[in-house]
User: Fold this.
Amino acid sequence: MPKKFTTKNSQETKNLGKKIAKSLKAGDLIALYGELGSGKTTLVKGIVAGLAGQEDEVTSPTFTLINEYSSNPKIYHMDWYRLEKVRGQDQLLIEECLGDKASISLIEWPEHGKNIIPAKCSKIFLKHLGGDARSIEVDL
Ligand code: ADP
Ligand code: MG
Assistant:
């Protein structure tokens, strides 16, 4: 059953991320859907904080393809915004992460990699509700 939350500021979104982190396990793959600025990276900060006790070094991997955090389990954080389609060398690297059953993968802009994302993966949908409010639907 999907669960729908509303957050009023980025701290609340981080707190929700920490809560979500508790129900994640090694091998999980989570697709984060939502427009620019809807809070995907902010939510990832909370998830990383929940599993690593640190969030400061979480940045948007728009330019780096994959960020890796030494949490337990390890987290791969990807942003496919700049990829028109996941292919070539990128695809090989990404598939290596997705296939790592000892880690968790969190993916922003999964729409750009429909060819490699498993249909049955967990999904989180973020939406602007005006001002700082966000709707966050979690379907793990
Ligand atoms: P995305 O990764 O979806 O592009 P980011 O998490 O990078 O989004 O950015 C969200 C921006 O919106 C940040 O500047 C954050 O401070 C701001 N913000 C305001 N309210 C919220 C909220 N309720 N949840 C998450 N971010 C919020
Ligand atoms: Mg982002």
Remarks:
- The first helix runs from residue 10 to 21.
- The radius of gyration is 14 Å.
